[in-house]
Amino acid sequence: MKTSKKFPLTLTELSALLAANVEQEVVQNNQSLTKKKDS
Fold it and tell me: CA triplet 25, 33, 24: central angle to 5 degrees?
């Protein structure tokens, strides 16, 4: 089965990318929550 052309990302890279996206979202949410508390 050759899926490398359809899916250039390996499963490891994909999960790492997903984790990074989730982490970034959490950080942004935390920042907006802190800003709301401050004001």
Answer: 15
